Amino acid sequence: MGAWIGEQKQLVQAEIEIKYACHCYTESSPTEPPPEMWSVRERNEWRVFDIPRHSLSVHVPTIVEALIQRPNKQIQKVSGKHNFKVFQLGLKGVKPGEKYYVFLKLEKTSRRGTPNFHQVRLSVESAYPKGNIVAGKWRPPFGTAIEEILGLR
User: Is 9 left (phi over 0), alpha (psi -120 to 50) or beta?
Assistant: First the structure.
């Protein structure tokens, strides 16, 4: 749950359901993997377990929790996409010059939850290290992005 004073100077309270996609710990495979390899078929692609991605994915809950606890923390809308990104520097396992990106989608839900709290789903769509910059323009605080999807701005 998160609570903050919104742009309109009103108290915003949100109960945030968090979902994690397998893209946080799998890699795309161009062909069907051998049966002994842990894999999953997703739409029209195979995903295979990736040890480096998995070892870094243990940081994702902490990164997401920091957004909820500090809704003034800046995120960025990914250019041409429906999702947002945040990145972390200096994680063990991330090469020098790379950032560990976490890509997330925010949605208003009609789920029944705590009374007087807005219901929001935060889906972590993927997370991986990347050397080049992922383009984006709008850089709202996390709380402002939630207010936007709730229609409070």
Answer: left
* Nearest-angstrom CA–CA distance, 86 and 66: 11
Q: Which residue's entry shows tokens 């993927």?
A: 126
Q: How far apart are CA 56 and CA 62, in angstroms?
A: 11
Mean pLDDT of 54-66: 96
Cα–Cα distance for residue pair 23/126, rounded to 1 Å:
5
pTM: 0.90
What single letter denotes the amino acid at residue 27? E
Distance between alpha carbon 122 and the CA centroid of its chain, in Å?
Answer: 7
**124 contact partners, CB below 8 Å, separation of at least 6:** 18, 19, 20, 21, 24, 60, 64, 102, 103, 104
Query: In the sheet where 39-42 sits, what is the strand order?
Result: 26-29, 45-49, 39-42
Six token digits for residue 101: 């990106």
Q: Which of 60, 75, 73 is nearest to 4 (CA)?
A: 73
d(CA 53, CA 65): 19
Tokens of 103: 């890509």
pLDDT of 140 reads 94
